[in-house]
Amino acid sequence: MAPMDLIETTRAGLIGPLEAKVLRLIGETFFNDASVDYYAHLGLPDIILILCAGEEPAGHLALYRREVGILDQDVEIGMIGGVAIAPAYRGRGLSRSLVQRAHTWLRTRSIPFSLLFAFEPRVYESSGYQLMRNAVRFLDHDGTWKTLVYRGGMYAELMEERWPDQLVDLRGPTV
What we know:
Elements lengths: L4 E5 L6 H16 L6 H5 L4 E7 L2 E15 L2 E13 L8 H14 L5 E5 L4 H4 L4 E2 L4 E4 L5 E4 L4 E5 L10 E2 L6
């Protein structure tokens, strides 16, 4: 496999031809519609990681920082969303590479946990994620607040702190 370039940017920095190609990749992946703007639906991430094979995006990850409520504490966490790998590049460990880079970014900011909500949880186990057993309170896409144990909800411990198996209030939507 030829080496790929890793681009770390923000939504404001994602412009030009690459922007259109990235939006098409994630629109097709999550909405089966290349014209849907992922960021308009899920908000602006703190950083966007893109793996490029030449001029083509092979992979995408959006990383959000969020203050959540766990017990009576405010805890800053990372939330990973929008992990998309172009069909021609699947099965090569690109998701793992993007997740590892996201973890490095979070650790340098002393953020103890990363959460994600996976369609395929097994993909993330090799990156240190475990299934959450605790309930999560979140703002659903229909504007209502819901509390449930999401079967694809996963966490990774990034520092020395242990994941508290308590209700997690996301104080907003999932990503």
